[in-house]
Amino acid sequence: MKKNIYQFVQHLAAATFIGLSVYGIIIYMGGKINEQLPAATSLLLGLGAVTCIVIIVVMGGVIDRMMEQEEKGDNR
What we know:
The protein is an all-alpha fold.
């Protein structure tokens, strides 16, 4: 059960990161949103992207450790 929650959080962070990246590309390419974002908004979007990356890395490590412990428990 715990592993499923960690996987959900990891997938949610990955989806959020992809969404922020696509939004940034649309703004950079000059899509329908041609207005410039305020600096604070840009910083918050960047911070959100970095936070998503950190969550993905940390949750991946936790899930790997959990799977390793499950495998060790199965081999006994």
